[in-house]
Amino acid sequence: MKFYRKQPIEAEQFDGSSDLFMKYDMIDIGTMCEERHSPEIYMSGINKKVSVGDWIITDNFNHHTLMTDEEFKQQYAELPLINEDVANWIELGKSKGIDLDTALMLLMAGRTDSPEVTGVSKWIWSTHMADIAIAGAIGYQVEEDNGSF
Questions:
Q1: Which residues in 32-57 are b (16+ Cβ under 10 Å) and which e?
Q2: What is the pLDDT of residues 109-128, one digit of tens each?
Q3: Rg, the chain, Cα only
Q4: Is residue 131 within 8 Å of 141, Cβ to Cβ?
Q5: What is the pLDDT of residues 54-70, one digit of tens each?
Q6: What does the alpha-carbon distance between residue 149 and residue 145 come to, in Å, rounded to a whole number?
Q7: Which residues pair with 64 in a beta bridge?
Q8: What predicted TM-score, i.e. pTM, was given to this entire model?
């Protein structure tokens, strides 16, 4: 599942699951005709058909709007794909209240010799500076079981 969060919006891509169907109070028009799981799905309060792959945008007032995947990609940047060790490093820094620029300075200074941090450092400095900046500020996707560095 892709999840994008940037103030003042949050966006979640509809995957057709029952969980998201219930979360966003969707209506299956087919059930009115005793045909369950029809392709006619609408969001309550929005007079627009919902399709798998559409994005549900929630503003900071908890109002929902709907956007196609193409519209979403045009308006918002694709989240960078990062290694699990890098994701763990970002989350560790956040949990300790260390901002990204300070964390990068510590990496540059070589404050640790652990293999994970050395791998993180190599990944960042090998043409991934923009990715780490986006990941730290907006969000990221974690690579599927790619192992560590």
A1: eeeeeeeeebebeeeeeebeeebbbb
A2: 765 566 666 788 888 887 78
A3: 20
A4: no
A5: 999 988 788 888 999 99
A6: 12
A7: 58
A8: 0.50
Q: Tokens at residue 123, please?
A: 């990944």
CA distance 35 to 25: 18
Burial class (CB in 10 A: 0-12, 13-18, 19+), 82: buried
8-12, 76-80, 110-114, 131-135: range with lowest mean pLDDT: 110-114
One-letter amino acid at 66 equals L
HSE value, Cβ hemisphere, 13 Å, CA-based, for 118: 4
Q: Report the C-alpha gap between 41 and 52 in whole angstroms.
A: 10
Q: Rounded distance, CA 112 to CA 91, Å?
A: 17
For tokens 């609408």, the residue is 42
Instruction: Give 11's strand partners.
Output: 4, 57
Structure tokens at 138: 């907006």
